[in-house]
Description:
It is a single chain. By secondary structure, the protein is mainly α. The chain has a domain of 50 residues. Helix content is 59%, strand content 4%. The longest helix has 17 residues.
Amino acid sequence: MATRSTQDAERAKRPAEEPIANRGVHGEGNYRASREYNEAARRFVRSGRVEQAGRRAKPRDRREAVELERAEQAGRSRAKGEDPELRAGGTTRKR
């Protein structure tokens, strides 16, 4: 009869069975949801409404501008850093 430590060692060697609901989902992502989001973003850009949306997103007054700036600073304080491609004019990878 195998001891518990032997059974645990054998179990650790076998690949874990992934729950059916999680198949196709790795890490923090969901491939289908990612594709759907990316396609919606492409459609939005092609629609020509980006400039209009940018104007509508501007702060309405000084108080709102200060509030948005504080929120951005709080978010950046926890960030690992900015993607250098954003400032270097890098190209977006296409898969």
